[in-house]
Write a structure and sequence with these properties.
Length: 292
């Protein structure tokens, strides 16, 4: 079977359009239509609904899509490995980084990596840890930073850093007089939180469930400067990593009682080929972590 139609099928599934799929793949739209029609004839199955303007996969098409994504991923990895055997000096790293780390921990690492490996292209995707893990599992990312709570069997991880989640309040908040803050006291306050799907929010939601409390979320935002500003002005309390707090932030942080520590790691798919570029990035990040 020619695998090109499988690429077309994946693009159609993502764009829900023959025209947009053709643009994404940089091919003529009739070529996409003809290839899909031939694939359907070869299989004796209808793969795509064409009854109305909304293009979508049939049940048979959805089942083939699962296999198509695996086949294309394996083929791309095979071609990459063969290219590297020829000693190519170029490469690409697609890495997912949660927002908090992307803003405060990784910028100097990424700049230093580019300085050491100027021919390697870095593609950095910021997002929630859950979203990034799914992108990693589907092959959209090569590496991703995750919170090493529950790691699926399909992923392998390397320890990165250990950070404490700290209760964060304005300098005149009553919590500033305490050495530690109990979860029960924390959940009596109006909270400034990241949106669902981010590790910051998931940790707080798990803690609330354990305490049988309902969080009073007054503000939801993924913008760390906004979280700081709202907290500084006394409109709520939050919880942030130590690395996020600067000396001039006019914020006070306190440990939870008991403290909450996060083990952050960088993960990749166990069954995938890890390119030389990605291996170099892993080694560089590990080296940087030891020297911090």
């Amino acid at each position: 079977m020619d695998i090109k139609p499988l690429r077309y099928l994946i693009a159609i599934a993502k764009t829900e359009s023959f025209t947009q799929a053709a643009k994404q793949l940089n091919v003529a739209q009739p070529a996409v239509s003809m290839a899909i029609k031939k694939l359907e004839n070869d299989l004796g199955l209808t793969l795509i609904h064409r009854a109305d303007r909304n293009i979508g996969l049939t049940d048979e098409g959805k089942k083939l899509l699962i296999h198509a994504e695996k086949i294309i991923q394996s083929m791309d990895e095979a071609l990459l490995e063969m290219s590297e055997l020829k000693g190519l000096s170029q490469g690409e790293v697609r890495v997912g980084i949660p927002s908090m780390l992307g803003s405060y921990y990784f910028p100097p690492i990424l700049m230093a990596f580019r300085h050491r490996y100027p021919t390697i292209t870095l593609k950095v995707i910021e997002g929630g840890t859950w979203q990034l893990q799914k992108m990693l599992e589907s092959g959209e990312l090569d590496l991703s930073v995750i919170v090493a709570e529950t790691l699926p069997d399909s992923l392998q991880t390397q320890a990165l850093i250990r950070e404490e989640m700290r209760v964060t309040v304005a300098t005149d908040h009553p919590f500033s007089q305490l050495e530690k803050v109990s979860p029960e006291a924390f959940f009596e306050e109006e909270l400034v939180m990241f949106k669902e799907g981010y590790f910051h929010r998931r940790i707080v939601d798990k803690l609330a469930k354990k305490c049988k409390k309902t969080p009073k979320i007054g503000f939801e935002t993924n913008l760390i400067p906004l979280i700081k500003s709202i907290t500084q002005q006394g409109f709520g309390v939050s919880t942030l990593l130590n690395m996020v707090i600067d000396d001039d932030d006019e914020l006070i942080t306190r440990s939870f009682d008991p403290p909450i520590w996060l083990d952050l790691g960088i993960a990749w798919r166990k069954d995938s080929y890890l390119s030389k570029a990605n291996q170099a990035f892993l080694e560089f990040v590990s080296e940087h972590g030891r020297n911090r």
